[in-house]
Write a structure and sequence with these properties.
Elements lengths: L2 E5 L4 H12 L5 E4 L7 H11 L13 H5 L8 H10 L8 E4 L2 E4 L11
Parallel strand pairs: 1-2
Antiparallel strand pairs: 1-3, 3-4
């Protein structure tokens, strides 16, 4: 089983989720998404694996770029994907992927249902 975590080490929920995985004897592939932003194709895949209708469901809507880019009024899904690709801080954290399923670790225990 290959598990991947899109991780921000400065985020307490992300650190807690990583610890939870390790407690379950899972050593995930850690993607530091702020340093290595996911491609648009990967972002679209994450939306699908999370079971979301829109990328907006995996966006941090209180971040400055969300407000500055007026993404609340963005109608096109491609605009949201483009915004996350260009401003990875907009991506909710952490996201854990296991095969064709993913979960946002808020709370960290939410990822257990995909393991």
């Amino acid at each position: 089983m290959t598990v991947t975590i899109y991780h921000n080490p400065r985020c307490s929920k992300s650190r807690q989720t990583l610890s939870l995985l390790q407690e379950k004897s899972i050593e995930p592939e850690v993607v530091l998404y702020l340093e290595n932003p996911p491609s648009k194709a990967v972002l679209k895949s994450l939306v699908a694996k999370l079971g979301l209708k829109s990328a907006r469901g995996m966006m941090r809507v209180k971040e400055a770029p969300y407000i500055e880019l007026d993404l609340n009024n963005a109608k096109a899904e491609s605009a949201l994907i483009d915004a996350i690709a260009e401003n990875p801080i907009l991506m909710e954290r952490p996201i854990v992927v296991n095969g064709d399923k993913a979960a946002i670790g808020r709370p960290p225990e939410a990822v257990l249902e995909i393991l």
